[in-house]
Amino acid sequence: MDILFVKLLARLVHAVHSIEKKSSKQQLQDDFGEFPPEPLRCESLTGEFSVTRVRGIGELYHEFVVRKALLQAAVSDMQFLSSDFVTAFGVNEIRTLQREISKLGRGSKVAERLFVVLGLGWMLARTTLKRVGNGPRRRILGHFMPLFENTSHIVVKSGRHVRKSDASTVSHEHIHLLQFRNPENHRQHARSPEKFLREEMVAEPILLYILEKKEVEARLHEVVLSFYRVHRQLPTTVAGFLGLVAACEQCGELVALILKRFSVAFEHQETYPARDAMFVVQLESILIHIDTPEMTLKFITEVLTVMYGNLLRYYGDDAASRNYLKEIERPNFYDELYKEE
Question: Are residue 29 and residue 101 in the same domain, yes or no?
Answer without folding.
Answer: yes
